[in-house]
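**Paired protein data**
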Amino acid sequence: MQLKRKTFVGVLVTAVGFGLLLGLFAQSRAQLGRLPAPVAGTPEAPIVLVQGPPLTPGTFAKIAEAIRPAVININTFSRGGGLQGRTPFEEFFGEEFFRRFFGTEPERIPQRSLGSGVIVDPSGIALTNAHVVERATEIEVITLDGSKHKAKVVGVDKKTDLAVLRLDDGKGTFKFARLGDSDKMQVGDWVLAIGSPFGLQATVTAGIVSAKARQIGQGPFDDFLQTDAAINPGNSGGPLVNLNAEVIGINTAIVAGGSGIGFAIPSNMAKKVHTELIAKGKVSRGWFGVSIQPLTGELAKSFGFKDTKGVLISDVVAESPAAKAGLKAGDIIVEYDGKKVEAPADLQRAVGLTSPGQDARVKVWREQSEKTLTVKVGEAPDEREARSTGGGRARTLLGLEARPVTPEIARQLNLPSTEGVVIGSVEDGSSAAEAGIQRGDVIREVNRQRV
């Protein structure tokens, strides 16, 4: 009897436990069934993918392999005038010694320099920096396979420090690189710099885009990409490329004494310059005809403008494109062709890169409201003068323009008298320029004859 009771209790406990477990399971299933169903059309949480180096993860080898055949080593030779290239004999005796006893100019020691470039067309059109080929009388290009080619300068644009070369008179076929869209690059994007630092051909370094639209005091068209990819002497003119092996910049400058601070000309600027140099041999730049200044907080307040991002027009040249379009002194330019204008350099660069004759929509703040005007961009006066030198002032034998020393000029230059002539301008590449004559110099004697 005792055994039967124990058996009955055991069976009862087991049944109760099994019932509790079954109840819990049923409750959990019921709760799951009551969960809200996904609403139709509701997007799921996005999966963010961080893009690293493409092709083979963890390496830039494929990109380097694709771009290196298009990168060239540039060797330039020049026999410059002035103090450059003087022999030790000439340094001691001077040029007059040679002229008096030999009747000839002393022979110059050839000057050599190294740089880099990138071929952007299979016919042998290459981009480099203007300062790499400046004053070069002979240019030799070495490609990755070690072959040597003669190159000629198609055109140079000193304002952007860009030059276009043509290899082997365009008779060969070369590996080339595509020009990408520099505007699409973002701070933090991977980039590679390829060139010949210290003559070490096809050296590849990697880094990121550290900043965009850098202004480093090189001129009104400063708009550099900054990178921490190592750029050293000899890299000038070489390409900065993205992960699609597209050229998005032309390496051009480094900070002296800095580490990991290099600058490249954006490819979009290089495209415009290289296209015009090939087509016309020069670059035409736009002109508004206004004097501008930064917009300070005090000035903005005085004009009823609530921001300091903009450019104040202080003067308008009569009969200029700006005057004809209705722009006035006191206008605040805030937008040019759909792009924000925050500082004078923004407007100078935007107008300068606009082709003459093209219409540009300009948004200004005037009399407590915004107005939009259309300006037909003109050609910069210095470009017109450069084009019309044949019909205006003829090129002189020595390549300089001399003016009388007036009493006012003598006073400004602190001269004791008005004797002599003052140099008003010196033509690039002329005999005067090579001799070291500069604008503002005063010439008192020529061949021991008073002027």
Q: What stands out?
A: The radius of gyration is 34 Å. The domain at 286-382 is CATH 2.30.42.10 (Pdz3 Domain).
